[in-house]
Amino acid sequence: PTHPRPLSHKGRGETLLPTHPRPLSHKGRGEHVDTHYLLGRLRTEQARFLIKLGNYAEAMQMITIALDLAHTIQSGALEALAVYHMGEALWQQGHYDPASRHLQRAAALAHMAYARQLEADSLRRLGRVLCEQGRYSDARAYVKQSLTLCRDMNDRQREGRALNDLGIIADSQGDYMSSRDYYEQCLRLAREIGDRPGEGNALLNLGAVCTDQGHYREAQTYFEQALIICRESGDRRNEAINLENLGDNAHRQGDVIAASAYYEQTLRLCREIGDRQGGEFYAGQSGLARTSVGQPSARPFIQSTGPRHVD
Length: 311
Prior knowledge:
The chain is an all-alpha fold. Helices cover 73% and strands 0% of the residues.
């Protein structure tokens, strides 16, 4: 992701705009309502992109405008979408308590507006926030609610995202067997529906959990497969995360030369995409410090941050 999040976060990925049907209450309310609703949706989409860029102040301005429009036309669905993005922006900045409150409200508003996809997204994201706070039981419960909704709707792409997040929660608890099982389910589903980005994410996360288990050769195979998909799709951020993980994997095996080469590629890619503050940049820097030729004494003082997972 080019906005920074705390380095303790294991994974950062794309933030997808939740989609949902237009509220039935809009019918017959005239062009005035339609215009306000469409303008509000435009502002939430602008907020989504601003959040990805790390421009949180501007994103909040767009969200505030969307909320005002939602209140003007009394659209619960639009209000839910704006509140969701507010929760997302707060989470990205590490403000977990207000983020969880906003995401809970977004889920409730979406439920009342029959916006089931948005409700599922809000519950899933709420689970991730609670996971970051170490509230694993609550996190798992919310993501499982999201998974049930996705299956009820037969929304297989969202089902895959929920399975992926359950894998991240299990991994955060050190339950690598369960984590791997969720990622394997996610991988099978992504391949069944032809979701190449989802397949790449599942492969990357499988590589990360294999690294955690000490299965380094298997991890490398997963990372290399994920890297191919990232390059095919032009996903440069996850490409950087894959390269970083390959470097970490090589370093754990004592292959200093390969690790240094992967970290060099990570740094170069981060500079190309303008990510001077993200985790990939700092991990790449520390990786180079660990593996600097002629400076073996630097290695013991900088610890590996471990493999990174993605949404």
